[in-house]
Amino acid sequence: MHPEPDFMxxxxxxxxxxxxxxIITGGDSGIGRATAILFAREGAKVAILYxxxxxxxxxxxxxxxxREEGAQCFAKMGDIGLSGVAEAxxxxxxxxxxxxxIVVNNAAEQHYQEExxxxxxxxxxxxxxxxxxxxxxxxxxxxxxxxxGSSIICTTSITAYRGQPVLLDYxxxxxxxxxxxxxxxANLAExxxxxxGVAPGPIWTPLIPASFPADKVEEFGKSxxxxxxxxxxxxxxxxxxxxxxxxxxxxxxxxxxNGGTPVS
Length: 264
Known about the structure:
Layout (H helix, E strand, L loop, with lengths): L20 E5 L4 H12 L3 E6 L5 H13 L4 E5 L5 H15 L4 E4 L15 H22 L8 E5 L3 H4 L5 H21 L5 E5 L8 H5 L2 H5 L17 H8 L10 E2 L9
Parallel strand pairs: 1-2, 1-4, 2-3, 4-5, 5-6, 6-7
Helix pairs in contact: 1-2, 1-9, 3-4, 4-6
């Protein structure tokens, strides 16, 4: 990618996640990588799940950067759309870390299609399996290990609020995640487990050049009030805030690092 995304934290850590363990899906690149490094800088042990062999080099680089922050880390490859993969990932995190305190449902895929009639049933199902079923599987398998004070965070999107005419299935999945956040937060409130989300606007990640035509990539993010796309390290602090005790009275909410676009 040119330029390379900015994913390194901007400030020294202050121990806000000291002693905590976090699992992050889609943690090999983009927002997931920035979040993994930031969580590590703040004292967390970090496990990342990534999809396939093509992403192994990215995952290894993320692990290197996390370990440079002094954190314990491991990465596992697998399709988050499969319940067994999620279950094995959670089990390994518990075995290696002894506990899980933070769940970040970040894995996602998107496919540019200008017409609804061009979206195949297979594509629609694939997008939902990764973006929605994956969050369900991870959360379901992690839940028995979570306790009062634990945090679940889902990466939804501005498209859940405003739609995106060339990302019809992706926008639909992000709307489903928004409803999941709101419903699950109410379901788990009595247990003291918080559930929140982050809805980024246009963020410069590898997903963008991989899924948009070149002319669209050239203009990506320029329609925001800030006239540019955001960087992964401009989103990760929102996840940190929701993960740590600073957000102890916040659940069922969504933060909007989107370059200034009003949403409701």
